[in-house]
Amino acid sequence: MIGTEVLVVGGGLAGSVASLSAAREGAQVTLVSKSESTLQQASGLVDVLGRVDGDLVADPFAAIENLADDHPYSVVGTDALRGGLALLDDVAGDRYRGGDRNALVPTTQGTVKPTLRYPASVAPGVAGDGRETLLVGISTDPDFDAKRAAESLDGTVPGDVRGVTVRFPRLRDDAKRTRYAKLLTEDDEFRDALVEKIAPKVDGADRVGFPAVFGEDPAFVRAELEERFDAAGEPVSVFEVPTGPPSIPGTRLRDLLRHELEAAGVELVTGVPVVDFEAEPAADGNDASELVTKVVVDRNGARVPYAPEQVVLATGGLVGEGIDSERDRVYEPIFDLHVPHPEDRYDWSAEGAFGDHAFARFGVRIDTDGRALDAGGAVAFENLRAAGAVVGGADTAAQKAASGVSLATGWRAGTRAATAVNQS
Fold first, then answer.
1. Strand ranges (DSSP E) for 184-223?
2. Final residue belonging to a domain, choices 241, 274, 297
């Protein structure tokens, strides 16, 4: 049996934050996950609270005060959110921007997304300052119709927005974004040819936005492109527009976190789903209180047991399979934790694609220390905490709050797990 002080299950943003915060408090941490991090499918933006009841939120911390009592932010408190943000800021350094108020970041869909932290490569494109913008689409990338996005943005943000679509030189129609990124990073002639195509279309714009394909070092690519635009007589700021999956900014964030986890001594084990666990009554003799004593993972067909002192569950929500359902129930599949839901399946969803769907709030409930609760509201296991999308009580997609909930609950679960280890 493998001993570890804190075992974190799940390698996304919440699991990474829980692992790193616990390790920085001095705990020995092992992070296990059944697959690679989902961050590479994310935009790389860190949304904390962008909408409430459909309305844009400028100050997330002020808006949190009016959320429901069972919302994860209300449960763990704004100090947990600030703790998670401080950890992220330390990890990201000058690669990210943002303060206490949301910025409006243009998207490839022609909308603006309220977000609290965003890559430095995105910052020059933030909407609201009235500068004229040119969006550049790639003819071989169907996910970004620059002209259509520009038309939509032009009617909603200050300053003129135009869009053009160009064929990137020397690229096949089926080229992946990673290929664009490699050429932009490594090939002077490619950058020359690209700017030569676009410069005549700038026509007085103050900034030029590209889909987020600037590779691992976007600051270098931006500087190289801006230098060439300046030489062509069209001085502009260059920025990235966040794209859908596969996301290069999301991959950058994943790599930043992975580097910090390794530096902090966290053991990372991927490709190992949790398949079983054991629990026993807590030492205080209270029959209603249990401790998780063993967590079993499947490693290439072999059952490998871990003996953790503390466990953090960060396996995702319905989409990430951290929450599952059958026709008559919704449940958490590893520890069979309680997930509140309407008894009638027809009440799980509402009319309309953007209705008030109950399923959007499905997840385990936690206490102020991040411990998962049972159906009666009592702690299910004294040493089991939950973080991220597996935690219910909020429609984080509608509220633009998924990353913030992961930061707040991950930080809370990780620091409290480390505290429990240090006090044992």
1. 207-211
2. 241
Q: How far apart are CA 307 and CA 296, in angstroms?
A: 9
| Residue 148: how many other CB atoms lie within 10 Å | 16
Question: Other CB atoms closer than 10 Å to residue 79's CB: what's the count?
Answer: 11
For residue 196, give the DSSP letter: H
Q: What is the pLDDT of residues 376-406, one digit of tens each?
A: 999 999 999 999 999 999 999 999 999 999 9
Same domain as 275, residue 417: yes
Residues 6+ apart with CB under 8 A from 280: 290, 291, 293
Beta bridge partners of 356: none
- The SS3 of residue 312 is strand
With respect to residue 187, please indicate whether it lies within any of the assigned structural domains: yes
State the alpha helices, DSSP H only, in 237-338.
248-263
Q: Residue 196 phi/psi, 5° resolution? A: -60, -35
| Pick from 140, 157, 137, 244: nearest CA to 198 | 137
**CA torsion through residues 18, 24, 29, 32, sign:** positive
Q: Could you tell me the sign of the dihedral formed by the alpha carbons of 180, 184, 186, 191, in that order?
A: positive
* Residues 282 and 406 placed together within one structural domain of the fold: yes
Model pTM above 0.85: yes
Query: Same domain, yes or no, for 274 and 229?
Result: no
Cis amide linkage into residue 246, ω under 30° from 0: yes
- 101 belongs to a structural domain: no
Task: Examine the domain organization and report whether 172 and 284 are in the same domain.
Answer: no
Give me 275's structure tokens: 């398949």
Structural domain containing residue 270: 2-95+250-423
Residue 173 covered by a domain: yes
DSSP-assigned beta bridge partners for residue 240:
210
The CATH number of residue 417's host domain is 3.50.50.60
* Distance from C-alpha of 208 to C-alpha of 199, rounded to nearest angstrom: 10
Is the distance from CB of 317 to CB of 363 less than 8 angstroms?
Answer: yes
- Helices then strands, each counted (H, E), the chain: 11, 19
The string of pLDDT tens digits covering residues 286-324 is: 555 799 999 999 999 999 999 999 999 999 987 788 888
Q: What are phi and psi of 162, to 5 degrees?
A: -120, 160
Bridge partner list, 104: 114
Domain count, the chain: 2
Please count the other Cβ atoms lying within 10 Å of the Cβ belonging to residue 278: 12
Query: pLDDT of 245-299, one tens digit each?
Result: 889 999 999 999 999 999 999 999 999 999 999 999 987 655 557 999 999 999 9
